[in-house]
Amino acid sequence: MRLQVIGDPVLHSKSPLLHGAMLAALGLDVPYTAHVVRRGELPEYLAWARDNGVTGFNATMPHKEDLIPLLDGIDPAARTIGAVNTVCLRDGNWVGFNTDGAGAVAALEAGLGLDPAGLTVTLIGAGGAAKAVALALADAGAERVFVCNRTPERAAALCALDGRGRLIPAAFDPDTLGRRAAQSRLLVNCTNLGMAGCPGQFEGFSFLDALPPDAGVFDLIYHPAETELLAQARRRGLNTLNGLPMLVNQAVLALEHFLNRPLNRRAMAEAATAALNQI
What we know:
By secondary structure, this protein is of the alpha/beta class. It contains ten helices and twelve strands.
């Protein structure tokens, strides 16, 4: 048995540390490593992984959506989202799952004390992670989730995945972000803007001024630990959360898929968090 996390960039990933800690807590000697796979290299990677004893892997940007047509099977929830972050070899077949959404909701509840039920949320992005988080928020009872994206068609396509009308497409310009933020108790960044090693940054942060004083700002990025978005939010006295708690919670769910059995999720999360606190 051999496990990996793939992406580009990926060598900064905390996944090997988290999974290593959880596997050790279970008394399992299973290697988990980071492996750089660039866009367009997925078919070669899947063949290599099968030949080299990889029985499961996590996927991060830019592969969560690109993996879908290459897998032998997709969990129904992941198929709805159109993205996977966890892939397991089951009876010789690559099967994909998505643990991002459930991990994000658990992180919000633990890290910001926010129950999504009844919340209005401004969510930035429309990629694989955004789909998972937006749908999970809707499933958890969020009243409205404004999905803001530079490409309106992508935002509309994401919102169409939810038949309850809780997801609402919106533009990405500062004025629109400000108007939507003024209506929201939570703002979530699901893009790579501000991520170390990736180009791009928010043009400005004036939209944060529109958030109510008790609002939370959740950035799925965890490298750096405090993005400029979170720094700007903190300076305004807003509650902030980076992507590490989400990473921990989605990793616990991913490990259940890798091992194909239920785990004590609280114990696993405690082991993973303890490992993070030692670095």
